[in-house]
């Protein structure tokens, strides 16, 4: 078990955890948001981030600090905590992104980590190579090799109590991401950023982002704290958390404010388009859109940044509460309705239902079937697997509702979309207590039919009959011919 990270609660791939940051003498509850602070221009002062927004951790860029003479001198002399006036944990980014954009690296891994240590960083980052999506495979492999060499050097640097992150690269090659995750997990480094996903998010490729994270997670152990590097829009936090990400950093709150963009959990709005402010934070309850538009530029920017942060932190709290209540996937479903590309992201997440099932609790509050996607949730996958282990009698009637013809068989089981068949004794156990709409969708019926098929497959010697209420032919086709079909609506 990694000493710095402890899990307290899980839901799907999401978790509430505690990241102990010894150098700051702080324990950060995850999922956590790290506001990005540019030491040269802070839109919202770090002290205010802690006091007003409850920020426990922030991230700043050691490359910018290194490159700005007076800031560098003050950071070396007084330390980052005093320079920024922030009481929580401070993570530093190495500037890999800037270095990769603006030329070759002329500093060694030792030097860059030692500099972060000297300025008082609590979590440092080595210089990795953020390989963009869709590059040729040999480039992704070569750059990953360099990143891995640097992580191995980083392991050997004496950094005292400072935690060090181990970025996971591999571009859009799932096997490389997985191998990178496994390699990083094998080092004694502490925090694991999934790197270079920003280009995917900028292009709304949430499905590809999900695949990249899922692959990295397969390589990383369950006890590895995972940072989705550069993911700062609250719209996608629930999706990221459900995949198993624990840390998010937001530069978006400030960058968007600069362009008069107003964040919501359903997407970004332009201030000029707003007639109402759909938020009850202190900024939005004390201003109208006209008030905000009339403010001088710097004041408007600060107010918008404050609103953007309120929305962002509120979403993190909502996600934590959803994990506690066991309805994180219901929240992801809601967010997936904000934009078609978010729906792609959710559908991609469900492609990994088997992977998420491993950390999904066996029992939760209630399963709400609220879309056709619900039929692909980890709970359904788990129930179908469970069907292989249930013992069955020689003849068995599977039926929706009451067992109309039950006495002709040894036993009668219930059939409920999207799960399929189960013994009546399990009716009160999660997830079979699910709330399902009366007007069942085809995906739920198909999943139930797949459950029947699974049961028939593993019990070839049992006489099975399915009593259904007018299931469409296309759904019934999924049930093997050995199962007798009885349409109860014709009774
Ligand atoms: Zn607001």
Automatic annotation (TrEMBL):
Keywords, ordered alphabetically: Glycosyltransferase, Metal-binding, Transferase, tRNA processing, Zinc
Coiled-coil portions: none
Pfam families: TGT
Annotated signal peptide: none
Primary gene name: tgtA
Any GO CC annotation of this UniProt entry: cytoplasm
One example GO MF annotation: zinc ion binding
Biased composition (Basic and acidic residues): 135-144
Pathways involved: tRNA modification; archaeosine-tRNA biosynthesis
Residue ranges annotated for the tRNA-guanine(15) transglycosylase-like domain, each copy included: 13-340
Descriptive protein name: tRNA-guanine(15) transglycosylase
Catalytic activity: guanosine(15) in tRNA + 7-cyano-7-carbaguanine = 7-cyano-7-carbaguanosine(15) in tRNA + guanine
Residues that coordinate or bind substrate: 128, 196
Function field: Exchanges the guanine residue with 7-cyano-7-deazaguanine (preQ0) at position 15 in the dihydrouridine loop (D-loop) of archaeal tRNAs.
Family per similarity comment: Belongs to the archaeosine tRNA-ribosyltransferase family.
Active-site residue numbers: 93
Protein origin, superkingdom: Archaea
Disordered, as annotated region: 123-144
Cofactor note: Binds 1 zinc ion per subunit.
Family annotation (SUPFAM superfamilies): Pre-PUA domain, tRNA-guanine transglycosylase
BP GO terms, sorted: tRNA wobble guanine modification
Assigned EC number: 2.4.2.48
